[in-house]
Amino acid sequence: MLIREIQQKDNESIAKVIRDIFHELDAPKVGTAYADPILDTLYEVYQEPRSVYYIVEKDGKVVGGCGIAPLENAAASVCELQKMYFAPEIRGTGYAEKIIEKCLEFAKAQGFEICYLETLSFMTAAQKLYKRIGFENICGPMGNTGHNSCEVWMTKKL
């Protein structure tokens, strides 16, 4: 498997991976990444300064991804870990941790001091991973992500 930066040709594939996971988990579609108007143009979105999105590719097929970008409506020192989703076939392989570490290294190099993330409460495997990497729960949301269905918020000092 390969971790690489997103390319324009990946837009449709990564959007499908993300949407398929929401259907698989019967997760809320409103107030989550599923409904993000940018979901079909992630390559273009992550061309912004201090932003990157990494793709996991297996046998030439996009099977997951994760990104970092400045947290909207937050201090310049705060970034957000965004859109981390993996197809069932690669869960449990260690690639989630690898891609998060790659994102956090990028964030540090960009001068971010705090990384924020939010997730759904039933995504317990992801929360265990985040805690193992050093994220801690906080009492409420930060910034303005538009993900009002997410009820778990976490940060990590970089």
TrEMBL record:
PROSITE patterns, sorted: GNAT (PS51186)
Gene3D superfamilies: 3.40.630.30
Annotated protein name in UniProt: GNAT family N-acetyltransferase
Ranges in a coiled coil: none
Residues covered by the N-acetyltransferase domain: 1-158
Pfam annotation, one family: Acetyltransf_1
PANTHER family registered for this protein in UniProt: GNAT FAMILY N-ACETYLTRANSFERASE, LD18367P
Keywords: Transferase
UniProt organism field: Flavobacterium proteolyticum
InterPro entries: Acyl_CoA_acyltransferase (IPR016181), GNAT_dom (IPR000182), NAT_camello-type (IPR050769)
UniProt keyword annotation of Mitochondrion present: no
